[in-house]
Structure formats: C-alpha cells, structure tokens
Amino acid sequence: MTSPEGIVPTEAHVPFDMADAATAVVDAVGAVVGWTAATERLLGYPAAEVLNKSASMLLASPEDAVTAQGIAEQCRDQGSWGGLVTLRHRSGRPVEVGLRITGVSPSSEFCGRSCWLVSAIDLSKIPTWALSGSLLEAFLVRSPIGMAVLSPDLRYVWMNDTLERYGGVPRDQRLGRRMADSLPGLDTAALEAQMRKVLESGKPVIDYEYRGWTMADPYREHAYSTSFFRLDNADGHPVGVCYMGMDVTDRWRARERLALLNEASAKIGSTLDVLRTSQELAEFAVPRLADFVTVDLLESVLHGEEPVAPSQRTLLAFRRAGQSSIREGTPESIAALGDPISVSPTSPFASCFFSGEPLLDPAMDISVAAWTGDDPARAQRVREFGMRSLMVVPIRARGTILGVASFVRSRLPDPFEEDDLLLAEELVSRAALCVDNARRYTREHTTALALQRSLMPHNLPGSPALEVASRYLPTDIRDGVGGDWFDVIPLSGARVALVVGDVVGHGINAAASMGRLRTAVHTLADMDLPPEELLAHLDDLVIRLGEERVGEEDIAAALIGATFLYAIYDPVTRRCTMARAGHPVPALVAPDGEVTFPSLPAGPPLGLGSLPFESAELELPEGSLIALYTDGLIETCDQDIDVGLARLSNALAQPGLPLEDLCSTVVDTLLTRPPSDDVALLLARTHSLSPGHVASWDLPTDPAVVASARSLTVRQLAEWGLDELMTTSELIVSELVTNAIRHGSGPIRLRLIRHDVLICEVADASNTSPRLRHARTTDEGGRGLFLVAQLARRWGTRYTEGGKLIWAEQDLPAPA
Length: 816
Description:
The protein is of the alpha+beta class. It contains 22 helices and 31 strands. α20 packs antiparallel against α21 (726-743) and α21 (726-743) packs antiparallel against α22.
C-alpha cells in the first residue's frame, strides 16, 4: 500500500476517468462478493478463485494489512476513499494501481448487505487515463502558460486563467470577440495575420515575439512569446486555431540591456577627449534610459590632473562635462557645458559623491528639497518639467571618483527601478574608464606638448642671407604633438643651415626623440661639418642610442628609421650643399617660378648604418626658393607620392607671393582634410651678398705680410664706415695671419665679410687644428688665439677641401 498515513485521498489525488476500470465488490467483512472480467485481466484471478474469499489475499505483502485496516476505517467514516496501492498478481508480481472505494446501498442486489465498490486502474496505462476528464481540464485551465482557442473567424471560444490574467479583461468579455476588442495595446493585426497563415498552411508558428501593453498593466510595455497551431477534427478539417503565450518581459529586458551595453561600448569613448566622452554618455542614455542626463566631473579631471579623494566635509569644484535631454536645447539644465556646478551638501549628488554609492529615488518626493537645496532656479526647473524619478551614480575608475552622473525621468511614466539602476551603473562604469583614459591622455599630451614646444624653435633666426617661413601640423590638430621638426641654424661665414627631420611615431616618445636629434644637430652644426659628415655622425649617434635603449622599444623605434635632410646655403657664393638620410627631396623654385626637384642621393634612414651618405652642391640664382618638407605633406593613403609632388609643384609656382602667404597656400592646397601624418614645411628665399660686402686677398707666407694685412683691413673698414672696429680688427687679423704663417702652409687667404656681423676669415692649406691655451708669463708667444677669443664675439675653425679656415666675428656698431 502506498497511500501516506494521515492523508485522506480525494479525487485530486486520483483524478482519472473510471470508465474502463477493473471492478470488484467487497462486503462489510472484507469478503469478495463481485468480480468482473476486467478485474480478472488486471490481476489474473478467475472469479471462482476469489469470490467469497477475503480481499486480503490480493495484497502485495502481509504488512499491508495494517494499512488496509486504516483505509477501511476511513471508508466507514467518510463513505469513500481514493489513492494508490500495490496489489499482487496471481503470478506473484506486484501491480501498481490507482484505487477508488465507494459505498453501495444496502437495497442493492447483494442480499441486502452493505458492500463497497472497488475500482482499480493499472498505473502502467497512465497515457490512457491521464489526458481525460477532469485532469485534462485542470491541466489546461491552470497551466502557467497562457492558452486560447479561436474559431476560424478568429473569435475567442476558450481561454485559460493565465491568459485572462495577462489580458486584464474578464473571460466573459472576451469570449466570442476578436483580439482587437480587448487588446488595444498590442499589434493585433500582425497576430491575426500569423493565425490566418497557420489556418491556411497547417504549419505551426513557434516563438513569435512581440511587445505591447494590456489592460493588466496599461502603463508598461511587456514582451510576449507566442506559438500558434491549427486544430483539426477527425476528418482533418480545421476547426480553429490555438495559441500559447508566455510573458518574457524579463528575458526581453535582459537581452535589451545586453544589446544596449554592447552598443554603448561602440558609441561611448570614441575619442580621447574628456568632454566628448562625457557628452557621449549623456547622449547615449537619452532617451534609452532617461529623459534628462547630466555628467558633472571634478574640475581637476578636466585638466588631466589626478582627482582628489572626496572628503566628508568639503565638496570639491565640479564642472558640467556633458548633458542631454529629450527636449531640444536641454531646457532643464541650469548650466552650460563647461560651467561650474553648485551642489547642495545635503543633496543626493553630494551623498553619492561622498559615499561612492549609487542612489535611487523612484518618486523624488523626499529628495526634491535636498536636491534643489537653496537654489530657486533648480527648484523651478524641477517643477516646470515635472521631474519625478531620479538616479545618481558615481563616476568611478580605478578606485577613484571622477564625478557624478544624474539620470532623471519627467516624461516617461515608469519610475526608475533597481534594474534601471544596475543598467545605469554599468553604462557609467564603462564610460568612467573612457573618461579616465582621456584624462590620462590629456595629462600625457599636455606634458608632451610642453616638451615639444620647448624643443621646437620659437622664432626662426632672421638673416640677410635667407628669408624663412614655416608651418607645423600634427596628425590631429588637437594633439599638437609629433616627431617632425625643422630648424634654421646660423653658421660661420654668413652661411645658414636648413634642417628638416621626421621621427617615427607620435606623442611624448616621438617628441623626446626629436629633441635628442635636434640637440645633436645643433652640436654637430657648431663643428662646421659638411652635410654628409654631419649625417654620418648623426647616424652613429642614433645607432648608439638605440643600443643603449634595449628593452625600451618605443623610444628605440622612434629614433631608428628617422629621416633627415641638412642643407647649407652660402650667400657669398650662392651655393647650397645638401645631403639627406631617406628624406624626401626638397623643391627648388627659380625666380621665374619654375619648380624642380634636384637629383640628390637618397641615403639610408638614420640608425641603419648600411650605406654612406653623399652630398650634392647647387648654385642658386638670387631670389630662389628652397622648400623643405616631411612626407606627410605629399603622401596620403589614397594618393601616390608622384601626385603629391605634382600638387606641391603647382602650389609653389607663385614667385610673387610673400613667404607666409605661400606657406598657407601650400598647406591649404595639399591638405584638404586633417593630415594622416605629421606635416612640417620650411620655405627659405635666398639672398646673396653683393661684392661690396665682401673683400678678400691672397697673401704670401712671409712674416712681413702681416703689416700689409693690417693695412688692407683698416682701409676696407674705413670704406665700410666701421672705424670703431679698426683697432680690434687689426689685432684679430694680425694674430690670425701670424698663426697661419707660423703653423700652417700656403697659400694664405684673408677675407672680410660685412654681414649682420663683421667676419674675419684666414684660410691656409694646413689641416692642423689650432687650440686655445694660456701662456705662461715667461712665454714669448702662445697668446694669439687667447687675444682673438677676448676681442671677438665668437670664433672657430672649419675645414675645407684645401685645408682649414679660422674665423672670428664682431658685432657691428649700433647705428647713430
């Protein structure tokens, strides 16, 4: 026997149809007095073996007798019993049955005795009885899945309790009517179209999803998943359509939130700009989550500084970094982007900032006064626009609070819920990392920009020999940091060096590498090296720096592979000597406007050390233009370099244009959109020194010629009106010529150049380098170069193809 003790079985325990049950009759003392053929088939006993014998012989085991006695007592007390028991087949095997016992009237044919009708169903036949009668009705009506049957003309003929609850309309007001009569918030036309398709084709529609509202919850959108199938009669003709639906709002919202977060990853943080990222967060959340969103950041964050940890006593300075509204122009806001924000210390904003925890105020009934504080303008906006639900979320990244984001609903009827707060936290968390990255970038960019500005020439040195103009454009105009550079370096003998270079990469590493190379070029230029030798020394330096930076790949990569061009223009001879290390060829513009690109050996980029560098020398007519540039000016991803050179040539062919205007024209012509690489442009218009500004003499290697050299110098200075420099110039010429005679070899050449300074040069055929030393008091000589160093503005030596040249400069006297 399997019925639990103390439980009275009811029809709910054995809800099966008894039409085909095995039946027996048992009298008041437990003897079998009736037996049917169905019972014989169930238990295997013929009627002759059981009639007038105790029913206990049918029990599965002797222990079941106690349970049987309890069932008998319940039958006498209640008049019936139903439950599950185990009986014994004639063969000895157990038979699990569902049993029902009911009383039989004493007036029946069983000799006037009180008897009990016992009906049993073989539980192995469950598929036969379980889908019949009251069980089927209970299954359909009480199913947690909404079910309905509609006639071929799509009118309700039956529905269960769940579907009635989903619709929010009583069953009797829906039966016999169409969907549209009771479901105005759903797209009933689309639903009926699905059912007509099922009626026509006989093919079911599975998991059809749609959204809308019903009278059960008229102010909130729900999502439903419904399956449709046709009902056919025994002849296979359709008699209706059945649909089963489930409310899948939670599943839909979870999917929507996941899709929203994925979309947010693509739309928030598109730039490394703090303000832009904050605005992207606000714009993304409206109207997806809120009607009005503000993003307020600490003022220090906007400057790229490390945010200060919040204090429980003092509110820091905030600025409005982003805001968006469903209303055009964001009329709810009391501040414009970038404006300072006043915060009440008792407001949810302040509580969120101090605690670092998000706050949810679904109804905004208690917090309105605290939120608006003593600001009447803010209180007026709250009332005017009906703000009624609020969320405040801290903008936190790497354990530090950067600001606070506020989400407000005023037009959407639903108040914020916990799920909305979780979504807002996730959105703000993702945006916070982007804001912090932008803040860090701002700090690094500011540092790099300051470094680059300190390394780039602030004012190109003016010179009568060259008129110059320049432009520098980084990859992104807002960044202002790159590895391209240019320079103009005054050299001895009125000569000028023009420099342009391109370091690999961008940012602080490129700027630092550019600074190293620029410093090295200035040092090597002071040595008065020819262009090809200067490049060779610079190449050795880059190789050495790369070897020293093992493990610092970014810095080494910025140095190795840099390109460079070095040109020296001599206004006396009008000759320009150039050498390049993998850099684009300069453009030369003749006075008549003809543009050419000289044949100049390319040379390898710096740091490769593979091939020697070669130079080329050109003679330039008076008023020629030299254009030095980096490859960002002529190369783009969608145009060949030859096209860029042709466009540059056309832009430069304007000989009458001032240099500054020509610079602007070249940039505007070639860069029609933000450059994809850094761009440096240096234009130099050449001028020559007239013969009246240069005087030179060949001198014999005879000590007596020193006096003649002094006389020639005095006479030339008198002709130039430089009487104030005669005495010092006599001494300088005397010492330099004497040194050349004593320590050098002929021929000797003396040259005076009146430039922006007075230059005295003495050349000889010796390669011996002079050196400055301090003579002892007893020495008869050795004071010549010491005197020259004291009298001259600056002095030095440079080597020529035929020997060396010692030069000294003096400042010209101020005009009267």
